[in-house]
Write a structure and sequence with these properties.
The protein contains 3 helices and 6 strands, in the order αββββαββα. It is an alpha+beta fold. Strands 4-3-2-1-5-6 form a 6-stranded antiparallel sheet, sandwiched between helices. Strand 5 and strand 6 (about 150-155) form a beta hairpin. The two termini are about 20 Å apart.
Length: about 180
């Protein structure tokens, strides 16, 4: 529990563990372009971008992904976070013990490239739900990469959420699997 709180405090994001619901099969059916993966990204990823992780051990990469909401918040809560100082990815869900997985330098470098290529730091901070929506799922992704910090919040009924954000989440979930 100490490591979890320490990593959450380094992220500088909320440390409240509100139990929430994930996407349902119904909302997972959105049509998207192929998702990048470190095994072979189908979209061009630049070799270097200013402020981006370049493999040096002193470059910071921290992220905090959370999903929740819906009718029964406890059933599908998911939180995944990572701190490059610990080089461990932590996954939390309500019915399983916390999973801690080491992340290699190449995996970290690949994720940083996906983040850099996604336009994440240029995205709006919030994409609210459409008017009148109910029982939707909420998402939050906060990232510190080098000297850049940004947090984006959205819902499964939000409009205009950049495709790059979904690519980052897919990559994070792939690392956690």
């Amino acid at each position: 529990m100490f490591a979890i709180l320490l990593i959450a405090s380094v992220v500088g994001l909320s440390t409240s563990y509100f139990w929430t619901i994930p996407l349902t099969a119904q909302t997972d059916l959105r049509v998207m372009e192929p998702t990048p993966s470190c095994a072979g990204a189908p979209f061009p990823m630049p070799p270097f971008m200013p402020g981006m992780f370049t493999g040096e051990s002193n470059t910071t990469l921290v992220f905090d992904y959370e999903r929740g909401g819906g009718i029964s918040p406890i059933l599908g809560f998911e939180k995944i976070f990572y701190n490059s100082l610990a080089k461990q990815l932590v996954s939390l869900s309500p019915f399983d013990p916390p999973e801690i997985k080491p992340i290699t330098d190449p995996e970290q470098h690949c994720l940083a490239r996906v983040i850099g290529a996604s336009g994440f730091f240029e995205a709006e901070s919030e994409y609210p739900p459409i008017e009148g929506a109910a029982d939707y799922f909420t998402y939050s992704l906060g990232i510190i990469l080098g000297n850049e910090t940004h947090t984006v919040s959205w819902t499964d009924v939000s409009e205009g959420v950049p495709e790059g954000i979904f690519r980052i989440v897919d990559e994070i979930k792939g690392l956690a699997a």
